[in-house]
What does this fold into?
Amino acid sequence: MNVNLYAESAIQNYPAATMNSTHCKQKNNGTSSAGKQDSVEISYKGSFAAAFDMDDETAGRLETAMQNADIPALLEEIEKQKGSLPVDEEWHYRRIVDPDGKIYSLTYVESLLRQYQCAEDTIKAYYAEAHRDNLSRGSIADSMNYLSLKYTKFGLLVGSPYYRSDMSEAERQMALYQEKALLLGGRVTIGDPYALAASGGPINIKDADRIAYQAAQDRIDALISEYKRANGIA
It folds into this structure.
């Protein structure tokens, strides 16, 4: 998508548009005679002020120029305003430092990945001791049987000394899933409220998005600051 970063073309086209006959209302006093110029009633003060972000006094002068059909005066005022027209500077510099948006996108994704990686590392650390205990049972089959004795009804029914009656059913199910994943080389689930309780709980997607958005914005802002500093731009 091509984006015009400047307002110059819009300024150049604006007078022609405003002077179009559909925007002008002629007021005739009786029948016009040859050589007599009709007066023109135009009210563009608000339009100029809104379009060009100019003060009321300047907008008033432009309106007067239009009413008097003083085109040279109008163009002179437009030229004066060119230098003070608001330009979306942030977008302009973003296009310079990140023309295709890849830096922003990459930073956003990297932030999300870091958040999820941090949560995964926290979960693995939480179950690390239990994982070492599971591995100490010998073969994978023995370790899996041990998990069953700890976290399933089988352990309860056989009166296993390893059964974790101190945990809720939901906590036992989560522990079984996570420790089994570690044992078999799978991926732990990030939505573990028990392992992440001390660090604020599972990741909230809205919070993760907000943090990633801010990280991307901060990265672009830093690049813009570096660009301005390198080019002596205040």
